[in-house]
Amino acid sequence: MTVVHINRSDFLGDRQGRTFTDVLNDAGQPFDILLQYFDDEGRQQRMEDSETHHDRPALAGVIRELESLPEIDAFLSEVHLQRSKRLRQATGVLVRMIMERRGWKKTGKKGSLGVRAKSDQTRPSHNTGGLAFWFIRAERYERQDGMPFQTVRQRRQRYKPAQSTTQPSRRHDAAQNTSAVARRH
Predict the structure, then answer these.
(1) Which of 64, 146, 150, 61 shows the shortest CA–CA distance to 98?
(2) Lowest mean pLDDT among 21-25, 40-44, 66-70, 177-181
(3) N or C end of the chain: which has fewer CB within 10 A?
(4) Cβ(157)–Cβ(124) under 8 Å?
(5) What is the predicted pLDDT for the residue at 171?
């Protein structure tokens, strides 16, 4: 597939993108760096691969590289919570626009990118673990014409046993023994 190009006009023409004029009009926001970064066939393919082959959000396929960009890291590491949040949200809109133009649709579910550190208004919000340092979660996508592979959850449905005829578990045995002892006393 060919690269999907999104520019400022495309972004502002989008139903969600038009709500981010504050980000686009803020000279201190590295929004043009985001546009440049995502204007790359390899990165867009990695976003698709993340969903298709790794069962992770599209953004997970590029998040470490994105967060390592000096301009992005420097901006997100400053203490301006609302501006930082808006840039991260605008990133999500940009990813959605690219994925939709590449034949994907939103699932309405979010996938984890990290575990947020305890909130502190005096320091920038970041994660303590996970794949990403600055981003917590991201939208999940599926191909408009259906996914080529089933998820583990979908596949395991084929293997759910009918009424179990196996022996009770050890936990069940222990509970039974405790009840029997209690009845004797």
Answers:
(1) 61
(2) 177-181
(3) C
(4) no
(5) 58
Question: b/e map of 117-153 (b: 16 or more CB within 10 Å)?
Answer: eeeeeeebbbbeebbbbbbbbbbbbeeeeeeeeeeee
- 111 has which bridge partners? 138
Mean pLDDT (whole number) for 144-157: 84
Position 53: which residue type? H
Question: Which residues make beta-bridge pairs with 106?
Answer: 141
Q: Which two tokens stand for residue 100?
A: 């939709």
Q: H-helix or E-strand containing 183? A: helix 170-184
Tell me the C-alpha to C-alpha distance, in Å, between residue 79 and each of 45, 121, 125, 150, 157.
33, 8, 8, 42, 47
